[in-house]
Write a structure and sequence with these properties.
Helices cover about 35% and strands about 20% of the residues. With about 180 residues, it is of the alpha/beta class.
Length: about 180
């Protein structure tokens, strides 16, 4: 169904993505967990400091959240997969993180964020304009959106060319994405 003709297109996409990631949750990042040093090398230049209010979008099993919480940040984390959220909540290091099962495009918050982080999930947000508008609406003045990966574009696109091709969109060059 074409998204311009089907008023339920977005809901159908989110439902597909939710099922897809629920099915992956048990084994998600079991072997490739990141150390604090690796996380710091990925987001160390973001300027995240103690007291920052951070939204982790598509948080998966919460790989960033314990690091951010330990750094003294207030962390909200969302994902469309209930199973991923349950896995993140089961990690004792994530005890101070506020988790929600939520669709980012529909997400609301009473407070604005200093930082919105999107780690390894950007290909799953097919409507890039709506994504940018939503992020902008959730950020404080001077806040920052960080979209980042721990692998190169070719490898990321390789992951999404198989079973995930229906729930993702290939990454373009950084210039084209900007």
């Amino acid at each position: 169904a074409d998204r311009h003709l089907d008023p339920n297109y977005h809901k159908k996409q989110i439902a597909k993505q939710s099922v897809f990631f629920d099915n992956l949750a048990a084994d998600w990042r079991v072997k490739e967990t990141l150390s604090d040093g690796q996380i710091d090398s990925l987001i160390g230049d973001a300027g995240i400091v103690e007291g920052s209010f951070v939204l982790d979008v598509a948080c998966g099993n919460g790989v960033l959240d314990g690091y951010l919480s330990d750094k003294g940040c207030k962390v909200d984390a969302i994902d469309i997969s209930r199973q991923m959220i349950l896995k993140a909540q089961a990690n004792p290091r994530n005890a101070n993180v506020n988790y929600s099962v939520a669709d980012f495009y529909e997400y609301t918050s009473a407070e604005k964020y200093d930082f919105i982080l999107l780690f390894d999930a950007y290909p799953h947000f097919k409507d890039k304009i709506s994504f940018a508008e939503k992020a902008y609406s959730l950020l404080k003045d001077g806040g920052a959106l960080w979209i980042f990966f721990d692998e190169c574009k070719e490898k990321i696109n390789g992951y999404h060319s198989g079973g995930a091709k229906d729930i993702s969109k290939a990454l373009l060059s950084a210039e084209e994405e900007a």
